[in-house]
Structure formats: structure tokens, C-alpha cells
Amino acid sequence: MIGFPQSVQGRTRDMQCPHATLLNLANFEQGTPRQEIARLRKNHRLVWQEDEYERGGHWLVLQRNDIDTVLKTPADFTNNFSPLLEDFPPDVLAIQQESLTFMDPPRHGEYRSMADFAFRPKALRARADLMQQMATQVIDAVIDKGECEFVEEVAMQLPMKAIYGLLGVKPEDYQYVADITNTLALANDPEYAVDRDAGFAASMEAYLFGEKLAQDHRDNPRDSMTMDMLQADKNGRSLSNSEYAGFFVNLIVGGMETTRNTTAWLIYEFIRYPDQYALLQADPGLVTHAVEEILRYRNTVVYLRRTATHDMEFAGESVKSGDKLVCVLGSPSRSEEFFDSPDRFDITRDPIHTRRQYRTFGAGPHFCIGVHQARMMLELITAEIAARMTNLRLIEEPVHFRSNFMDGFKRMVIGFDKREG
Ligand code: HEM
After folding, report:
1. What's the N-to-C CA distance of the chain in angstroms?
2. Model confidence over 126-176: pLDDT tens digits?
3. pLDDT value at 2 more than 60
4. With 70 as the cut, is the pLDDT of residue 4 above it?
5. Best of 32, 81, 181, 258 to mutate for ligand 1, by most ligand atoms within 8 A of CB?
């Protein structure tokens, strides 16, 4: 039963730490502050916190039922102002509002159906062999070295080859697209962006690249998901270059960082818990379990923001039109209500139960379009690693990137032995 602490100026704050703000970047230096989230979840349904850099504040949404309500009720909680906490400059916002992640139904559903077909299980099965070959090549490239910088050399390689390949990006452009994706997704880390404006500029660059990619496909038709999307007939009309560009940005941002970070976290946890890695090596059938467990234990998208469309009573609070609601996706992942010993990394948990309980891929109309693709990539690379690498170890302390939205590493140098037989 959740108690409702004292309300300040009509909005409940956390009286134990009234000036603390969960989403302050400093709290994320070692990854998501999960103990603090657990403490807040035990005491609150909604709690009001100040924004770090902007005037005003936001509601943290901590209970799974409330997260589901916010994500599944776009008429009350719109996506039009971004899933990110920061407000976009008006010119950037106007362009972003033409892309999938900023849209509400019914427009959202019409657009999403133009890409959905490429991510259905049938389409995925058709590219399973190719992705298996890619996973093998990724490990081939490092296996004889005995050590590698895991994030760049392994974790990022499969999503990069698979997603860029699928979209028909030319291999010579892969690094450029990866660099702008890092800048726009990790704009709070000075290694990737000098400031937030550099992040907004990178969004524009990615968008322009998407437009050029569409035009290149029209000039030089080739077999790719981009071609399929450009040719899709939607009530007698097809996507323009700029409409396609919005999709392109969503797909590269949605697919790359998330999958890369999840892979890196999995190897990190296997190094921390070698008994769990030994279990997987002894029984390759546990690969699905291992992937679901890391998606639960280290969900990489920290939060999703929505914006209230009108004044309302919600979760015991008076929410005002324009208030930001920030759903903390990792909150249910570590709740005893849904998992036994939730802070234990345990790859023997039932994967079906796990995936039903967590909200790692969101919920409602914007639920991750690439969920099957993500699971397939994660399972392929995990199986390949477990079959070929043993005695995993850290060579240096891994470095987290600076972000309160994405949880992951920018560098992780690991050592390993070749697994014989
Ligand atoms: C571990 C991997 C992944 C995680 C944790 C993840 C997580 C998420 C989450 C939480 C959302 C909801 C966003 C919202 O409600 O505003 C989302 C949406 C989305 N994801 Fe993923 N994702 C992953 C992999 C992928 C992949 C591989 C792709 C595509 C290649 C992809 C493409 C997208 C797109 C396009 C959306 C927007 C859907 C919409 O707005 O309707 N994601 N993802």
C-alpha cells in the first residue's frame, strides 16, 4: 500500500529528500540509480521533481499500472512534445512532430503501418540466416586477439550492420551515421556533443541524411526496407522523402544505442557473475532466458515522457495541462511485486514471465516496433559469444556515458580466451 506524503503547493514532493531530483545527470554516473528508484517507488505513485536545467519540473511515474495508463492513453498524455524530458527549440520541434515518435493516434497508426511489415516475425525469419552470418563475422573479427574494446568492436557491430544494411545505407556511410546517432542520442556527454545544441544539430543532420537516402533509392532502386517503404501504397499515396526521413531517424536511434547497450550490459553482468555465464555455456538453450533477464535487469531506456493534454486528477494528484509525466521504465523491473529477489541477476528465470512483467520496450501505441528484431540480434550475438569466448574478464574499469535517458557504456575493454571444441 502506498502512502501519500505531504503535498507542497498542491504537488507531492519527496519529503525525505525534498531537493533531490532523480534525473540529475550526476545520479547516472554509474548507470541508473536503481536503489533510489526503489525507494521512491515504495513511497510514491507520482512525485514532483524540479528539472535540472529548465524552469519548472516534472512528475515521476513509478507504479506499473500508472505507467501503463500514461503510455496507453495518448488523448490524456500526448507524445507531441517529445519522449525526452528536455523541451526542443520550436524550429526543431516542428520538424520532429512529423516523425513517428512525436505523433498521436490516429495519425501515428497510419504512419507506423508503413514500416510495420518490415518488422513482423515472418519478415524477420527471412533475414535470420543473414543476421546469423553477421553475428559470426563480428566475433570472427576479434576472436584471435584475446582482448577487445567490446562496445565498439562487438556490441555496436551487429545492430549497425543489420539496421543500416536493412535500410540500404552504403557501407562507406556507416561510420558517419553511427557518429551522428551518438551525438543526437548522447548529447549530454561532452565526448559526443559540445552542448545540447550540437545534439539538436545532429538530429537535423540525420534527418537530411534520411532525405538523401530516399532520393538515392529513387535514383538507384535497390532491394531494401527503404525501397519497400517508399513504394508502400497507403490509401493511394506513398511516403515523401521528408516523411521517410522521419522514420529513418526513429529507426537508427531506436535500434542502435538500445541494442548496443543491452549487449554490453549482458557481458558486464556475465563478468560480474561468472556462474551465470557458466550456466549459459553449459546449456545454450538458456540464451532466450539470458536475453530476457538482461532486458529486465538493465533496461537501457531509462524513462519515457508524455505531456498532459488537460487538467485532471490522476494517481491521487492534480495534474495540470502541460505537465510532463516521466514514466520510469526500470521501476517495475526491480519490483518485488513482479519478481522474486528482483535485484538478483538470474538467467534461469522464466523468460515468458519476465517479458510480460517488464516495460523495457514501452507500452501502448508506441510499443517498440523493433522488439522482435532486437531479441533476434541479442540472442544471436549472445549465443555466438557463449560458444566461442570463455574466461571473460575486464581489462579496465568500464566507462559509462553521460546520460539520464540511455543507460550504457562508451568503453569496456575485456579479455577472453578462445573456447575450444
Ligand atoms: C534492446 C533493444 C531495444 C529497446 C530496449 C527498445 C526500446 C524502445 C522503447 C522503450 C520504445 C517506446 C518509445 C515511446 O513510447 O516513446 C521504443 C520504440 C521504438 N523502437 Fe525500440 N527498442 C529496442 C530496439 C529497437 C530496434 C532494433 C529497432 C529498429 C530497428 C527499434 C525501433 C523503434 C522505433 C522506430 C520506435 C518508435 C515506435 C513508435 O513510436 O511507434 N527499437 N523502443
Report:
1. 54
2. 889 999 999 999 999 999 999 999 999 999 999 999 999 989 999 999 999
3. no
4. no
5. 258
Cis geometry, peptide bond prior to residue 274 (ω within 30 degrees of 0)? no
How far is CA 299 from its chain centroid? 8
Q: How far is CA 110 from CA 238, 251, 302, 304, 378, in A?
A: 11, 17, 28, 22, 29
Q: Which atom of ligand 1 is nearest to the CA of 362?
A: 10
Residue nearest to atom 38 of ligand 1 (CA): 366
Instruction: Report d(CA 413, CA 415) in Å as an integer.
Output: 7
Residue 6's pLDDT band, with cuts at 50, 70 and 90, is very low
DSSP code, position 326: E
Residue corresponding to grid cell 534527418: 207
Domain 7-418 sits in which CATH superfamily?
Answer: Cytochrome P450 (1.10.630.10)
Going from the Cα of 245 to the center of ligand 1, the distance in angstroms, rounded, reads: 17
Q: How confident is the model at residue 96 (pLDDT cuts 50, 70, 90)?
A: confident
In one-letter notation, the amino acid at residue 156 is M
The residue to mutate among 256, 361, 373, having the most atoms of ligand 1 within 8 angstroms of its beta carbon, is 361
3-class secondary-structure state, position 75 = coil
Assess contact for 250 and 365: CB atoms under 8 A. Answer: no
Q: Which three cell numbers stand for residue 359?
A: 516495460
